[in-house]
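Entry 14. Structure prediction run on the chain below.
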Amino acid sequence: MSGRSLKRMVKTRNGAVCKVRPRLRGRALLKAKVNAIILAGGKNSRMGGEDKAFLEIEGRPIIERLIDTLRPLVKEIIVVTNSPKKYSAYPVKIVEDEIPGQGPLMGIYSGLKGSSTRYNFVAACDMPFLSGALIEHMIKIKDAYDVVVPEIEEKYHPLFGLYSKNCLPVIRRRLKENRLNVRGIFPELKCRFISKEDARIFDRDLSSLMNVNTKEELSRIKPRL
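Output returned:
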């Protein structure tokens, strides 16, 4: 049998031979339980219509940086977009918003529905400096919660967070009520908020939470590299 196989052959008490999948350990076990959802369905109006996912940082599009950071941590990467052809060359699953134009809450909802795992790490497509260490920490502490997000100086960062499928009924109802603020779902769910001090253990300067909304912000980011 090939050394690359995930299965091994064992003999049962009655002499039959069967294949057994070995137990996953450590990061492999975490990875098997979590997918990632990249939200790429925005209008990019503050960027003059230019797609933020394809802005280049150090000569590479942000979307490629995100995929490279997330791939070792998750089972599958899902991109929620209404422009699926743009992402056809990438090793991702494409999901479209069920109803376009309803913002990131609809993106989270569509991504969760399209995911094969209970837990999913969500990030916006304009966040070029994700910390794998911080994401891995969030995955490790997820099990008793529906949502895990940073809360830095009384400000939530919902587009850098872990969401379970338990969120779906709450999100569905709020979408029907046209209540589209992502933070609005938190009081109805079991949430774990990560403090600034705890986040800095894994991401010293909190660069994971930095996003690029305008060309001015992009120009300010580049000199820091």
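Residues 1-6 have pLDDT under 50 and may be disordered.
Filed with the rest of this week's runs.
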